[in-house]
């Protein structure tokens, strides 16, 4: 039975890239699928040339081509990414990291509820955190551009590299915090809820911008053992 050559495999990779599949792991999945289909066609009809067989296999993906496959893989990897974040958040609920979570919460709560001008102290803390977040995000972005290689990126790798941008949306509520009357936080339940939210958001920022990126190579080896 006819088999695909190394040249054919390279052509299949080029074909997926030409059809807007930018992630190497998704390309590999599609190349494997196309290769199996082409060789199955050759088993039934050895006289069929490569381009004809490829055209037949590609048409099986429908009018949207590889788009649905890419979208499905993005959903799967996004779920995996958020699972990583949930696992890290869970670690901050267990000893010894729970002491860090409690210390942060008590710091925010004490500032808001017990100190006369604590509201302004928390506002300053949030402002400093915001500027630090933007600085670290910008620094990381420059490093990624500097270290960018010619190889095609992996889907989960791209999601991790962009992860810091996700946390920026959590600052939307911060602007509301700035316009609220400080007297609101004299209410115990409001102070408790606000302290909890600020603590969780701060931990989320630390996880997505520091912890997960530091573990990126280990994560990619676990997810893509045959590639990385």
TrEMBL record:
The chain crosses the membrane at residues 95-113, 119-138, 159-176, 188-212. Keywords: Membrane, Transmembrane, Transmembrane helix. This is Uncharacterized protein.
């Amino acid at each position: 039975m006819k088999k695909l050559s190394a040249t054919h495999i390279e052509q299949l990779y080029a074909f997926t890239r030409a059809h807007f599949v930018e992630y190497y792991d998704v390309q590999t999945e599609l190349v494997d699928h196309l290769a199996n289909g082409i060789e199955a066609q050759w088993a039934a009809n050895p006289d069929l040339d490569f381009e004809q067989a490829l055209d037949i296999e590609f048409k099986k993906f429908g009018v949207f081509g590889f788009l649905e496959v890419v979208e499905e893989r993005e959903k799967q990897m996004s779920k995996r990414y958020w699972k990583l974040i949930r696992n890290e958040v869970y670690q901050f609920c267990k000893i010894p990291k729970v002491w860090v979570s409690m210390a942060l919460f008590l710091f925010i709560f004490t500032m808001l509820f017990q100190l006369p001008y604590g509201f302004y102290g928390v506002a300053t803390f949030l402002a400093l955190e915001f500027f630090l977040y933007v600085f670290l995000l910008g620094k990381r972005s420059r490093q990624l551009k500097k270290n960018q290689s010619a190889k095609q990126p992996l889907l989960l790798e791209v999601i991790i590299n962009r992860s810091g941008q996700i946390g920026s949306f959590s600052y939307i509520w911060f602007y509301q915090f700035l316009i609220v009357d400080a007297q609101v936080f004299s209410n115990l339940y409001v102070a408790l809820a606000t302290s909890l939210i600020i603590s969780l958001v701060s931990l989320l920022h630390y996880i997505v911008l520091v912890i997960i990126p530091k573990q990126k190579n280990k994560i990619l080896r676990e997810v893509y053992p045959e590639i990385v």
